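Sat 14:20. Reprocessing the chain from the morning session after the first attempt stalled halfway. Input below, unchanged.
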Amino acid sequence: MCMTCVHRSVRVHVRADAIFVREVEEGIMHVQAYFTTMPQDIYGTSDTDIDAITRDLITQVDNWNGRGSGFVIDRIVKFVLCVTKYRPLHGSSFIKTPEHIARKHCVVNVKNDDNMCFAWAILSCLYEPQYNKERISSYVKHKNSLNVEGLKFPLDIKSIPKFEQLNPTISVNVLSEDIESHGFCIEYLSTERDRQHHINLLVLDDGTSSNRHYVWIKDMSRLVANRTKHNGATYVCNSCLHPFSHSDLLTQHEPYCLRHPPQMVKYPDPQDPEKCILKFQAHKKQFHLPFYLICDFECFLTPTDNNDDDITCTRIIDEHNVSGFACYRVTDFDEYRTDPVVYSGENVMSEFYSHIMSESNALAKIIGAKVPMIPLTEQEQSSYDDAEQCVNCGQLFTETNWKVRHHCHVSGNFLFAACNNCNMQLKMTPMKRKSKKGTKPKNKKPRQSNSPHNNDDDECDSAEEDYVENYFLPVVFHNLKSYDAHFVIKHFEKKYVEQQRRKDGKITYDDVNVIPLNGEKYLMFQVGNLRFLDSFQFLSSSLDNLVSLLLKSGKGRFVHTTKYLGDDESVFAKGVYPYSYMTCRERFHETELPPIESFYDSLNEESLDVKDYERAQKIWSHFRIENLRQYHDHYLLSDVLLLTDVFENFRNTIFDNHRLDCLHFVTLLSVSVK
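Finished this time. Tokens:
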């Protein structure tokens, strides 16, 4: 079925890929070049300028070939005509004021029958009548008071500076509305200051055509009333649209807003020496997280069909499809340790998400139990009584920062005497999410405590009943940024962040946050309460090298590996895997280890070392592996356990030397900054 879309205006440009050749001593050199023409805006009364596109392409080809390289064009391999819907932002014919804005009585919308709505909106401000403000007849007599020489109507946004030059007593700001959110943004911010007349205009959009319409914003306070909870008129900044309750606050704000639109630098009070010294205050990051997950993926490398005639800078060799995952819960609490999970069945990524979500829920119940403190032994009580300063931060106890019995909320064991400030931070805090914005706790009873300074359980709980509680859970991959993250993001579904409100069963959704390097790579991303971290950002070497380095400290460092794989020499090195050979699930049924030729790395064009192949054969026999699926699962399990030992040793070293848990950070650099 063929469908035709009709638009009043479109934007057109051309992309062309061409092959250039030249003769060299070795034969013929081929180079691919890429060209893009300048976009053309096509309206209903104009046609596409084919000659201009041709001239643009010829000029670009001449410039490319004018470098003295001797290349000549051989052929065009791709020619794409890009046509996109274009809705230029300018005022034109009359558009009725939307009902939600009309109810605010904050704009004057002149009902014009021409393309001069910009001029009528300006005049409605300069010569506001007492009655009939929407009638064009109220302003006809003032039409010649504006200098519009050389301006083309309907007037677009980029022509407003010229209007301001022609009318030196007038400055103009233009706002537009987001149709979905009903929020406002500034389309044009005048650079002119302190002119006799400053006029704020709003561009209306009917949503169905390219028509736009300027109206005068008579009362900015009413227009952006939803930006504040203040009950009454506000004073609105014309640069950022932030409302203030008092005019003096706006006066203080404007110099900073105009000078530094994105931010305001605030210096410490020079009269307070304590505030002038930079000190470590992120004591929350000293809390040793009780649980986290170590994960890894493995993939089938399915060869792709390539057209050898096309010369491109990037050649696709294989398509990576996830074949299995391994996940291991890491904790210091023996009673909550579980065996690592390895899965290599169908729908791997769905199973992966289901597993980590179930792990998150299970751990939330454990942490949320908040085990009360076990009675102190005589030695612990004596240690607490004798303490004069916080064991964690070293600060002396005071009346405002008193001494507290700090204990583990998972085991209930007393840890040490801490100040109240550290005690409140050194614990797992729920990632609470309000069920409804602006709701306040109902029937909240005041806290009652007989000994407020002696137990860290005696703290004010301000969470509402409608809050959904979950806890921050790190999920660690090695080289997440460059590999595993692509699968996690690609297979994300909205249902994975779905939450049901306790009070009325309403469905809500958690946030997804990222720290991007670019559009394809992320240093960290967080899905709900699951924070995906890359161990490579802390230990920037291959797992094989990291294992070899740790092995120099002895096999005793590999607690998790030896627990599940034993202490045979073959397990203390990263396994070898026939990546290029494992092309599909049918390979899992093979009952013999493939020959050494099948371990050839086609990506790096490297053959497998004979000693490594002999180690693979030893692993096959030692662990009584019966088919390639079991070998695949063993490889995944080995990688996860080795990474656990490497990362745990690094994490404990950082904590012992710096009292910081690296799981609170994104990179090693961020740890060093603290």
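The longest helix spans residues 628-658.
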